[in-house]
Amino acid sequence: MSEETKKAPEAEAGTPEPDKVQDGSAETAAEQPASPGAGSGEAAAAPEAEAAKDEPKKKDGWFNKKNREAEALKAKLDAAEKNAAQLKDQLLRVAAEYDNYRKRTSREADQKFNDGVSYAVGQIIPILDTLEMAANAPCADENYKKGVTMTLEKAGKAFQTLRVEEMEVLGKPFDPNLMNAVQQVPAQEGQESGTVVTVYQKGYKLGDKIVRHATVVVAE
């Protein structure tokens, strides 16, 4: 073999193989795109970051909505409590007015009844005075006297039913609100001045109302 033929393989051995060059460039290219790949990852992470930023806003919006609803409910509750307080006050006023009306009408009815009873008793009392004089007068007919006494007893029971009372004034100090003095006599031994010593006519009252003043004689 000639020397040129021997050198050819060596030259060929020193020249890089095309496939190897291409593979090396491919490896280099494979290593180089790492930075663009990282950029696409950052781009994918950006929406997640924005979503994470929007999440507090959504929560704040939800809390604000709930706060507004709570404030609205509180306002309605306050208005309802105020309205209830006003209604309660009105109810108490109406109840008080009704109670006053009931008491007033009851007093008026009692007053009218007492006035009617007082007028009727005032017309009957003179008759009883006459019967008492007849009962105290001497009489030989015991049956007659007994009949008069029984009539007076029935009249007394009727007065009790009507709540008409005879005033006890004999031996009591003179009271111009209850009695009419028609005479004064010298005080006897043991009698105090101003004491009632004689009753000419009995006095009657209905509760606090005087039906007839007692007619009396008072010691000086």
UniProtKB/TrEMBL annotation:
InterPro entries: GrpE (IPR000740), GrpE_CC (IPR013805), GrpE_head (IPR009012). It is found in: Cytoplasm. PROSITE patterns: GRPE (PS01071). GO terms for cellular component: cytoplasm. Its main location: cytoplasm. GO terms for molecular function: adenyl-nucleotide exchange factor activity; protein homodimerization activity; protein-folding chaperone binding; unfolded protein binding. Residues 1-10, 50-66 have a biased composition (Basic and acidic residues). Coiled coil: none annotated. Residues 1-66 are annotated as: Disordered. The keyword Chaperone applies. Residues 33-49 have a biased composition (Low complexity). GO terms for biological process: protein folding. Keywords: Chaperone, Cytoplasm, Stress response. Participates actively in the response to hyperosmotic and heat shock by preventing the aggregation of stress-denatured proteins, in association with DnaK and GrpE. It is the nucleotide exchange factor for DnaK and may function as a thermosensor. Unfolded proteins bind initially to DnaJ; upon interaction with the DnaJ-bound protein, DnaK hydrolyzes its bound ATP, resulting in the formation of a stable complex. GrpE releases ADP from DnaK; ATP binding to DnaK triggers the release of the substrate protein, thus completing the reaction cycle. Belongs to the GrpE family. Homodimer. This is Protein GrpE. It comes from Candidatus Faecalibacterium faecigallinarum. The gene is grpE.
